[in-house]
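Field guide to reading this record: the first block holds the primary sequence, the second block holds the structure written as discrete tokens, and the final block holds curator observations. Each block starts with its own label. This record concerns LTA synthase family protein, catalogued under organism Mesorhizobium calcicola.

BLOCK 1 — SEQUENCE
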Amino acid sequence: MSLGGEVKVAKSSKRAGKAAPQFLEDDPSTGYLPGRRWPVVRYGLISLAIAAVLVFAIELTVRGDFAGTISFFLQPLKPGWTTIVVFALILIGLDAVLGRSHQSLMIVAPLTLSLAFVGHQKSHYLGDPLYPTDFLYARQIFALLPLLVRDRPMTALAMVVGIVTGLSLLVYGWRLWRRKVPALSRKGRLARLTLAVPLLAFFVSIMDYATFSWTRDRLQIIPIMWDQKENYASNGFALAFALNVPMAHVSAPPGYSDKAIAAIDRSDVTASVPAEKPDIIIVMSESFWDPTKLPGVSITPDPIPNVRALRSGSMFSPEFGGMTANIEFEALTGFSNAFLPAGSIPYQQYVRTPTPSLATFLKSQGYRARAIHPGTNWFWNRGAVYADFGFNDFKSEETLPPMQKRGPLASDAAMTDEIISEADASDDPVFFFAVSLQNHGPYEPNRYYNPTHAVQAPISQWARESLLSYAEGSADADRGLERLVEWAKKRSRPTVIAFFGDHLPPLGPVYVETGFLKDNVAPRNEPTPEAALEHHQTPLIIWSNHSGPVENLGAVSPAFLPYHILTTAGITHPYYTGFLGEMRERYRVVDRNLLLTPAGEATPDWARQKEIDPAIRDFRLLQYDMMFGKRLAAPDFFPETVDRVVAHTS
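BLOCK 2 — STRUCTURE
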């Protein structure tokens, strides 16, 4: 043979040596050997061991606490052991699909550990665990990345390097595994699927928290939907996440029927407006709060003197540090998040057809209903939601004129200019709903190059400078309110202004260092009503250029704002001032975890009690009927919506 022929044979042999191995009947690594038990048993035990390590890593990542993770697995028949079995079945089933033993780990591990990391970060900054519905607004998270990168550039760089390195190693490992590990036989793949698919299907069938499951109960998987932090702590990240999947569907309340809706008391209040219709302007100020409430903190000069002088009471926010859309939902509709699944976001999940709101009603009375937000129109799905709420138009970043920035975001002063300009240019009465943007977190130090305040506090320099950035933004919001009020005082047209913060700001370490909170965020289910009030109240102003500020409202849920605003404007409505007015005589706060009467009497954890106040029951029935049911109550409570329910095309 010639030298050239020898070289060709050598190359051919080399290529043949690199070919991916096929199924080998006598190779135990295939995990399936007809007539031989031990390799099958070994494969199963290895799959369980891998699942155990992975589940432990997931829980450790989410909890950030080694001792807490160990305690989660200590007792038998706890959800942790069920999770391990479920993960083993997932790995076995995916192995059958991929055709290689244990290759499924390269998909399952990166995916679940990434989710666990995101869940830990969300819990750290917002106080809530990761919900399946969070992925409905993932685009919003990416929109906030520039702010986060500016706040923590080295952390962002480390994350990018970590992601690129991880993906590179994953691709290399995947290709190496396909070359080195023999393929499974058809019988082996079928055996795995026969084991995994029916068991996983059965597991899925028992995870609807709204129905009782004997098997789930025996496995000690207890859905704790009223306290999601405890739900994730008790059931573990994976099972709690799975339990929350069905929350996108809202079940009818017990007793919902035509007769139940007909039995709800109808007040004699009808829709009416004054002969001279007042302009109504609502400003929901991003993260607006009184930072001087922080222990040991002194801010000079006072950042919110105008709010302090005009204050009507407090808005009791159902959220902390974020989830603005949920406060917005209550304030515009007069409905309550308390009657929706924990962790849900109505703007993302439930507002899919025309839904009654202040805009719907006021537009029916000749108002021009307008919404303004200097951010993008898709954020929180606002563009579609505002259309369903009945707004005539929504001006956002895409349609507003270029707005002057203060710091990295559009200024409150520029938004105030836009409100005044639009109101002065309108011949028709206007209803404005404005959502500010300037004081959105994170509050990086030195956010403003020309601060006008000074912060004194026994905390770290970073925390002090971060608090200064927040205080500057709050002062700008306060000046925006002052300008609106001074403008309205000079108007002949009656004007009502409502101003409130949506939630406490996400100040994180500032809360811990000042001793205001033990953690970066307040717990969902506060230990006492007093703590709930302290951590969820933001300033509320309702003011009229004819009668001045409304006084002594105390703390009120956003769902009651339509009642107070319309009453101040001299407007009546069968739901917003009739039904809500009667409800307001019984409660001023209706929250998922707390009911508070006008006299200050608190009922914590009311939803877990066997007997629920019939008034609360009717509130829930009415809301369900209008959002998800037959809209039987529309003619009596929302007459402006009758014969107008059509699907939007936004």
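BLOCK 3 — OBSERVATIONS
The two ends are 76 Å apart (CA to CA).
The CA atoms of residues 4 and 142 lie 58 Å apart.
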